[in-house]
Target: deoxyribose-phosphate aldolase
Amino acid sequence: MNFYGLVDGTDASLKHYLRELSGVDQVGADARAAMLATRSIKTTSKRWAIDTAISMVDLTTLEGADTVGKVQALCTKAVRPDPTDSSVPSVGAVCVYNDMVATARKHLDLVGGQHVGVAAVSTAFPSGRASMPVKIRDTQDALDAGASEIDMVIDRGAFLSGNYIDVFNEIVAIKALCGERAHLKVIFETGELVTYDNVRKASFLAMAAGADFIKTSTGKVVPAATAPVVLVMLEAVRDFYSMTQRRIGVKPAGGIRNTKDAIKQLVLVNETAGPEWLTPSLFRIGASALLNDLLMQRMKMDDGYYASPAYVTID
Model:
């Protein structure tokens, strides 16, 4: 495996690599995130920001009550978010449980969404509590069903216990399954990692192990994608790029529900990692309700008034 010359795959080298990481100034991270949250964008840039945010959405449904019909409707919306306006871009991907991957892929292809990916949550999502053979089978099932993106969860218990090599090896194994046919997003569940130092450590561990994206959370635990946590992860991918010349994506998920929240995320990306990350290939937003608000704000820019939610399709 190629670990970018940072580790050799042993426990000793991984622990040395993680010990050498700089710590996070918690007060400074909080202050910078709060400052960036006050930034506004020009009205002339708002349409671009809304369309960019739409293109970055991983339109998500992860409920026990999901049905074939609900997933099909979500896929239709993913391809044509506003059926009355073909200039609205498609979303980045549809994110579903494994058993809905084949349904999503088939329906996306049927409605002209071959360019929209299917992301499958994997490795015993959301808890990550399962044996490695189960996690491998879970991932292989998703890939066989047509998933082009795998959103895996790390074993937070192992990480918090200092068993970093176990977490590292799981990521390596899942990435080996994905190969070149699927991008791997590694979910930390930052609300359970507690400290910014742990978030930074998990970020570098996952990137060295082969992650294509690092992701804040499952959306099932609060807090989820807070601005300071996203800031810490964006600083990590920026620093990792300086070390390796490889750009890794970031996906905040959980709690991003309206256009104002989404635009704050874009400002964070631009001011922290840089404008090169302002693309769906390097930044995604895991959300369900967000898309409707983006569409309503877009309609307001065209019509001059804020449309009722009845004017957009229900997810």
